[in-house]
Amino acid sequence: MRALSGRPLMRGSLVERLRRCGRANCACADDPQRRHGGKFLTVQLDGRTQALHVRPEDEAPVRAAIDAYHQLWQLINALTACELADLRRAARERRRARRRQR
Question: 17, 36 in Cβ contact below 8 A?
């Protein structure tokens, strides 16, 4: 699939999660509004959701790979619609040919 797009592809979602750091004296321990944020890549593989922390400097390439996947998927859907239309057209033509033979 990567050969088709010419760039990295990745299925998944980039989400932001707020969490506590675990230090008892940190403000995030008591106040949910002050929890630490972070971006995570989530993807479902083999029936399980997996998450990976994405560093700020890696966010842009990860987003680009996810966008490339979506663009390729849209192209595949468009090609599928064309093939389906061709199959339906061929079926109609076969029905018409059978009717003419009668």
Answer: no
